[in-house]
Please model this.
Amino acid sequence: MLQALGLGRAEETVYTALLGRPTASASELVRSTGLEEPEVAGILLDLSARGLVAVAAEAGSAAPVSSGPGADRQPARYRLTPPSVALAPLLVEQRNALHRAETAFSMVTEQYRSTAAHPAGSVVEVVVGVEQVAHRFHQLQRGAQRELLVFLVGEPIAVPREDADMSEASALERGVDFRVVASKDYLDSPGVGSDVRAAMSAGLEIRLVESLPLKMVVSDRERAMVPLDMADSGDEPSAIVVHRSGLLTALVHLFEREWDLARPLFATTTGVCAESPADDRPTEGELEVLALLLAGISDRRAASQLGLSIRTVERRTRRLMDLAGADSRLQLGWYAARAGWL
Model:
């Protein structure tokens, strides 16, 4: 925990051992930490020099154990300097170091994009080989701070599924908004259903389509990775990494279009994910009501034409809006057109 503030592992061990007591000597800390006494003594001197601990009773300040000119005196005891005072400068130092690192990262990135030696590399980067493709894939997933958009198609070629699952879990733990559109063939592999179910429980959103034109991962809408050849041709896997550009914008729009048209998945008790059940589609009677509403006919007239009560028309309309996730009838009409209900 304190290593993030610049303390070493042994220093953190001694520091936390002091947290639970008002004062302690080096020998007492040896017993509680399991470290050697010379190491503990050196750490205490270093922490004292840095202002993290203070001497509570210096050697020679207490009464001697025995009389005489060569009598031993009580060992020094140490106490923590209040952490709110002592650790605050370390926290500021680490924040400043992170800020400097972010500034350097931005400068290097912009210099790389603007250099004349890499005119195409500023937009598209070609990656070849299993290790390089896998490395760049993990960079995109682990570097995401806000959002990941993914197309999943068929069997993985360069990145084993268990490795991809680990990167996925890490992103979900960080609170990254993670959305996936998968083709039906992706769910055919053994064990995929239970893995997807676990990911959905952790916050993954996934939808299903008949087919997708490509595999893809988009990180924070700033960079994307697309395989150059999805077929297992026996050649070395290769991919392109697309940076901010019109091409990246087009890939994001492609994802959003497929997401809107895809059908959500639900997790079964057996760990298998499947398409939404049939009752998530409008019934024939509901579609009749929808057709009249889109024609501008009022609920009362629709009820009269269909031989229904107004309450039945309102109930069917309400269910249509729930299926579409719409808050208004205007939104319902837009969704119905996109989903091909009519």
Notes: Confidence is low (pLDDT under 50) at residues 58-68. The longest strand covers residues 177-183. The longest helix spans residues 88-114. The chain has three domains: 2-88, 124-278, 281-339.
